[in-house]
Write a structure and sequence with these properties.
A hairpin with a 5-residue loop joins strand 8 and strand 9 (234-238). The protein is an alpha+beta fold. It has 11 helices and 15 strands.
């Protein structure tokens, strides 16, 4: 490799195209130099055919291949800002998080406003209409409803201020201050257990919003328990989920009994694969996953100094009962010495998934 300049490094794409980067650039800098979307979707990299960490320093003459995620939720990591060298990569990463933060602020603001209205026993569906939000945005000098939600999420506008405008614009009487400050207890409706697309029902509660917790990703066959969220829905966790254990200890009154009612649908599963780093390892693993009919959502990979490649994959599968056969197939891949499901449980509860419950 020739020294082609101390301030720049010249590397190659797999097709032989030369890419100029700042000295000490990394695979992430290379990815953003190729295309912004390639940078945003980066999940791993090969340098000269070998999987390397994303903060690896590139040398003149290296051939760099970027491994990207096809997930709709793929995006950069804030950690990348600590090692990228090119202004383009740094700016694009910051722009992405600025846009992401606005999206988060809008969602947080909407949730905060809804919770505040429910605490005051106000009719959310009646007051929180698109027309009413346009009126509030105009009253508060915001361009649109999303800007109002973002302002709430960022703490620039109080929910009380927005609620006052909603009530006033609706022509309703001002809500008594004491009633506004009252926090209503959660009261599950005494009805038959309700089924949902999640395949879970809540005992003694009907017409309730249910979601499977992403921290432990329960699937049919797991022992599960429910927790009433602030928006009066129910989040379903594995009983050994550490987050659920903490919630149960702090707020036992919000815990409800739930049960599986169906095994049909798509369920999210996350696994970790540990293997000796080698050429084509990642493609071999993803091929086996695809052969088992799962829809890969995201993946990450990192290689340690001991040449152990640790990768994690999140995917949807229609029948979690086939998970054991999938893990067995991955374990047969050359170089793989361990694979297990990640559940969010305590290590002592399920350090390695050898058997499905």
């Amino acid at each position: 490799k020739e020294d082609l300049g101390s301030s720049e490094v010249y590397v190659f794409t797999p097709k032989g195209k030369i890419v100029s980067l700042p000295a000490h650039a990394t695979p992430v800098d290379f990815a953003y130099a190729v295309h912004t979307e390639v940078g945003h979707r980066t999940m791993g990299a090969r340098v000269n055919g070998r999987l390397v960490p994303l903060d690896t320093t590139l040398d003149n003459g290296d051939t760099v291949e970027i491994l990207t995620s096809k997930s709709d939720t793929a995006g950069p990591s804030r950690d990348w800002l600590s090692f990228v060298k090119s202004p383009k990569a740094r700016n694009k990463i910051r722009q992405w998080f600025s846009k992401e933060r606005r999206t988060e602020a809008i969602e947080e603001g909407r949730d905060e406003l809804t919770r505040a209205m429910r605490k005051r026993n106000l009719p959310v569906n009646t007051l929180l209409t698109p027309e009413a939000l346009v009126g509030v945005a105009d009253d508060l000098n915001f361009p649109n409803a999303d800007a109002v939600f973002a302002a709430i999420g960022d703490g620039q506008v109080s929910t009380q201020n927005v609620i006052s405008h909603l009530v006033k614009d609706a022509g309703a009487d001002e809500v008594d201050e004491e009633v506004e400050q009252e926090v209503l207890p959660l009261k599950p409706m005494e009805r038959k257990a309700s089924s949902s697309s999640t395949g879970v029902s809540v005992k003694g509660v009907g017409d309730v919003w249910i979601k499977l917790a992403r921290c432990c990703m329960p699937v049919p066959g797991d022992n599960i328990i429910g927790f009433i969220t602030r928006n009066q829905g129910v989040s379903v966790h594995r009983t050994d989920c550490q987050n659920m254990i903490d919630l149960k200890n702090k707020q036992p009154e919000r815990v409800v009994e739930v049960e599986w009612t169906s095994t049909k649908g798509l369920f999210m599963v996350k696994i970790q694969v540990e293997a000796l780093d080698r050429r084509n390892l990642l493609s071999d693993v993803t091929r086996v996953l695809s052969d088992h009919g799962v829809n890969i959502i995201s993946g990450t990979i990192a290689t340690g100094s001991d040449r152990v490649a640790t990768s994690q994959f999140s995917f949807e599968m229609a029948d979690p009962q086939h998970l054991n056969s999938l893990l067995a197939a991955v374990r047969k891949i050359d170089g793989v010495f361990d694979v297990y499901r990640i559940t969010g449980a305590k290590e002592s509860a399920e350090p390695r998934l050898r058997k499905m419950k």
